[in-house]
């Protein structure tokens, strides 16, 4: 290690710049949290508040008392849980099958999956496909079109290829079928990869927005991110009537404070889940990334 004066000064300057940059980056998030806990009367008196004199849970009590927000939370929670589990099952199963040398037509399937990465059909073909399958105004329209990722399939395939064939042969000697080998051997071995990819899938499903705008027209099935966008445009009494009514029905809570509380609540689940998966994150993202 270089302990010269110049090296120490560089490290000190580097830490100082990164600290300032980190504080500037965190400031908007801190401001959102503070405003969400600010007493409505104090916010109306002075909208720019750094440290409020009076703290309040009025905004959180209000958003959880409204059917629109609770329904949207339930829809997004269903997408994040069910969608993530289905995506992990399909991704890992497809990757395991493609990693087996005895699979007939393996190159054809690999090229077909690769083509989905290189050529995106676009919004209109996707919309026509969802409509022709009868999935409009259904939560499955938000899950099935995004059920797996070609990139994750290739990474998982490379991971399964690195596992010695003797392990699979030993399991089959003990009486395991192909499905038994996958469930009892491969899935437990790939926990780190599944945790990392599961986090990405969960964040993507939780943040579902564009698909919700395209495929969902019923208020009860709108995901949380769509509702938040509607809340942002409803402050000026525009946008969806149900959300505008929700924001205006409680005169004592300003719409801006309600929005801040909604943003905090919508971000909290992912922030809470991430620390529990962090130990798998780095290891999982390196899975299958070296060998092609």
TrEMBL record:
It is found in: Cell membrane. This is ABC transporter permease subunit. InterPro entries: MetI-like (IPR000515), MetI-like_sf (IPR035906). Pfam families: BPD_transp_1. Coiled coil: none annotated. Belongs to the binding-protein-dependent transport system permease family. Keywords: Cell membrane, Membrane, Transmembrane, Transmembrane helix, Transport. It is a multi-pass membrane protein. Residues 73-277 form the ABC transmembrane type-1 domain. Signal peptide: none annotated. The chain crosses the membrane at residues 12-37, 75-96, 108-128, 140-160, 181-206, 257-277. PANTHER family: ABC TRANSPORTER PERMEASE PROTEIN MG189-RELATED-RELATED, POLYGALACTURONAN_RHAMNOGALACTURONAN TRANSPORT SYSTEM PERMEASE PROTEIN YTCP.
